[in-house]
Batch of 3 targets.
Target 1
Amino acid sequence: MAVLMLVNVIVLFGCGESAESSRKVARVSVKFSKPASIYGSGHLKVDLTYLGKVPKKKIGSSDPYCGEDLVSDDLLVGENKELRDAVIYLDIKTDKKIDDQGEAVIDQKGCLFVPKITLAKPGDKIKIKNSDETLHNFHIVSDFNPEINSGMPNKGSELIYQPTAAEFIKMKCDVHPWMGGWIVVRKHPYYAISGPDGLAELKDIPVGKYRLHMRHFSLGHMEQEIEVKENETTSISVEFVKEKK
């Protein structure tokens, strides 16, 4: 809201003017605008759903421990089409640091990676576990981070993986080819993963317009322009469909 201030400016007329004119006063109105806040922030809430059919894809494992009824976790969708395991993030320039999340753990459990997607920052130490009574291996495929391919033969086997650069890192188990997952290493805190309710939230975003990225590792990548307003929550709904190959 603009603030109006009146400033009295006395104008003295030069020699040769009459006494009457020398007493004239010019009143000038000067309008000052209150500067917009550069420190405001808002929130973003994204509701993600999947429109297509969800195949109950059985693995058909030859490993008796894993069983023949194991179902793939590549596409997890709720009863009301809520899409799980979608990663959202912003194109944003920021110096804001990522809060320390404590120890991240990725478990090989039930012949799947749990969780399937893990958020981390460069330098984090991630514990990899094997909770199954069968042989697994932990295999990282990466462009910018350390690669590793280590056997985890026994229940209770553990190792530490430490990413060094921002990247989407693929992890897999070669013993069980259906086992896959991702470590999302990011430079700033404006990343989130949708849960079983299909919701993903970003908080305390500086006011402004941004490009929002939404990635599901089986369905593809989408983008949308969004605007974050001060002290408001911007809510959007996004529907994914399977990419045609």
Target 2
Amino acid sequence: KMKKTGYFLVMITFLFISCTGTSGSKEGNTPEAVVATATDGGSEKAESTKGKPELLTAQTFKLKVMDYEKNPKQWIFEGDKPAIVDFYADWCRPCRMIAPILEELGAEYEGKINIYKVDTEAQRELAAAFGIQSLPTVLFIPMEGNPSMQKGALPKESFKQIIDDFLLKQPATGTN
């Protein structure tokens, strides 16, 4: 009976180690992850990214949001729908608090707005170009007019109010 208990503990320990071994990978490019991605046909990955914020580099930011090098003094939005840009860092606790909120909003407002994330540690030039000094800093970009920047974490209700009243609000056509 003692041998069975010892064997059981060894198996549980092995199972635990194998489950947590690759999930802690910062890059996600372990051979196991590459093989899993290559063999699953991409279906799981496509489903899991549905509505999730898209990580931008300086290059993709210039294509999808604004080319701040070509137009340093004038805001010219490159997007096809209103957008939210979350300037964050992995070590920032408030940034980690709003990350699931932004994922939920991405799913709720899918097709109506784009939600992007910029890692300020990896994209220092981009963070400097926008004067990011505190994290999180969230940039709200309507289709017309100037964007608005908010510093600090917001509750989901505040994000929804800004999306509904600022990003998705149709321009007034009548009198006040």
Target 3
Amino acid sequence: MKVKVLVAAHKNYKMPSNSLYLPVFVGKEIHPDINHTFQGDNTGDNISAKNPTYNELTAIYWGWKNLDVDAMGLVHYRRYLSLNHRKSLDSVLNEQQVQDLLKSADIILPPKRRYYIETNESHYFHAHHHEPFKIMRQVIAEKYPEYVPSFNKVMKRTWAHMFNMFIMKKEPLDEYCTWMFDVLSEVEKQTDISSYSTYEKRVYGFLSELLLDVWL
């Protein structure tokens, strides 16, 4: 299988030497002069200019629309997938490990992040503005009612697969990205974030972290 794992980055940083990994500078459309080594997320079909509100999703969108691969993944410049729990670049998943895992699975995920005493919904409400979450819930109810039971189930859980990290075969990747970006686009149309702080304007990236488990 032809596989690429995108490494989302917004600064110059040391990257894995393994050819499996493709460093992608996110928000390249906004910061064209910061990095000339990494692949920019502003070529072909892209949403690079939305990086301040979509975070690493601009890399996922770019890879989904522009790469000819059998499977694609995303990690972060300081956060990787590994089988041995070590954090060095020498310990990240390699090509053979990914190929072996994809023989028996369509999707590779990071470990669950556990909140223990908080649900995914309560954790989000404690950390972020409530209105975008409520709009997202309504969008799903109106456009994708078959997802409502899964949405409610995931929001009541005390764990989730976070950070928008995964490796997916092409077919589930197409299905997931089509659904996820459509939901977020509708939320974006209905949400006024003009008064939000720079951090809180990253809202669509924050919301998307909750959508992966709903779709799964």
